[in-house]
């Protein structure tokens, strides 16, 4: 590996978050019974005419803007002609010659903490094919997916390590999620990744033969596949062999890449302009209106979370890694100012509960307003953090009000200084010997009397108020 420079380019197919397909009114539904969401347009029945999904174009524009791509205001489509079982009509509607976006970039942070600009060559709109289900003796086809709107995002071959690839994919996925472009679930196929990888001697300007890695369904597998392929290709080159241009897949069981097919000549898809969709000119005002709808993206959230919520960098990263966790945090933060404690409970106790019970943030019983109410009860000294151990497990399982729980369980703290003084002053007066040590050992004396106060009240005194009262009474009784 040290003898060669690694050259990597990424192609991502992203399913757009639309309710209908890209060129037909067919419904989009993941996990439906196979072949129950099929439309005659997507199957290419004679005489059918495609229509362009406006929402799909909007989402493509948002993706272009978020990835700093130059937008082409003329939307034009082409036919990619080939026959394969998952493409029954014999062609795919795509944008070969005039992609809606080109020449963009995404900046990532490398392992040595330096920025790396990943150049994006193009982004184009197209339709998905059917899903193939392979068995030992047969292949079944589910045409529910046929016609679903996609954007394909293609980088230039500027990535050099598996770490850089992972960081690029993590950041790309964040943008797709936070801009509501796609669900971006690799395990469900709404975000697919093909990696093109080759090796060349350091200093060489000529690229080596390219191997395409397909069917990578997780970030971890992307890294493993790249590392394996780097080692495989370097061993071939070091022993005087030639890396063949081919397509390979990653086998999770063997943790290796496996040959799918060899590539000899480039396939001639005989592209030509889609005759049933005339070019569409997008008004600049409409493009601007679409772009204005973009929600706050992760980069802006990172800045705001540090500035407004004073969160640690590690806390911010954990929160932003899960879109539903982020939504829960923000909805709760809009109803409380106890941000540090909010982040602590979300990342700690609540996330731990979800992990133990195999739940996601979308399945949780606890609601943001309940958590905010509990945190506000801590802030105003109605309860202490000690009481959270009793309240939170109940809130995670039952839809109840934290205030009602406090009243029901008798957890309300004593916060009246006069009431606290009445309880503890006799103890202070009766312990003259301990009181006399205050000047030399103030912390020990305060700790002793606070302990006595908590025993008498069964821990129901608000600690900060209780300590202030104890200190005042110690000083007062010293003077007597």
UniProtKB/TrEMBL annotation:
Enzyme class: ligase
SMART domains registered for this protein in UniProt: GatB_Yqey
Catalysed reaction equations from the record: L-glutamyl-tRNA(Gln) + L-glutamine + ATP + H2O = L-glutaminyl-tRNA(Gln) + L-glutamate + ADP + phosphate + H(+); L-aspartyl-tRNA(Asn) + L-glutamine + ATP + H2O = L-asparaginyl-tRNA(Asn) + L-glutamate + ADP + phosphate + 2 H(+)
EC annotation from Swiss-Prot or TrEMBL: 6.3.5.-
Keywords in alphabetical order: ATP-binding, Ligase, Nucleotide-binding, Protein biosynthesis, Transferase
InterPro entries in alphabetical order: Asn/Gln-tRNA_amidoTrfase_suB/E, Asn/Gln-tRNA_Trfase_suB/E_cat, Asn/Gln_amidotransferase, Asn/Gln_tRNA_amidoTrase-B-like, GatB, GatB_C_1, GatB_Yqey_C_2, Gln-tRNA_amidoTrfase_suB_CS
Domain Asn/Gln amidotransferase: 327-474
UniProt GO molecular function: asparaginyl-tRNA synthase (glutamine-hydrolyzing) activity; ATP binding; glutaminyl-tRNA synthase (glutamine-hydrolyzing) activity; transferase activity
SUPFAM superfamilies: GatB/YqeY motif, Glutamine synthetase/guanido kinase
A GO BP annotation: glutaminyl-tRNAGln biosynthesis via transamidation
Summary of subunit composition and partner proteins: Heterotrimer of A, B and C subunits.
Sequence similarity: Belongs to the GatB/GatE family. GatB subfamily.
Role of this protein: Allows the formation of correctly charged Asn-tRNA(Asn) or Gln-tRNA(Gln) through the transamidation of misacylated Asp-tRNA(Asn) or Glu-tRNA(Gln) in organisms which lack either or both of asparaginyl-tRNA or glutaminyl-tRNA synthetases. The reaction takes place in the presence of glutamine and ATP through an activated phospho-Asp-tRNA(Asn) or phospho-Glu-tRNA(Gln).
Descriptive protein name: Aspartyl/glutamyl-tRNA(Asn/Gln) amidotransferase subunit B
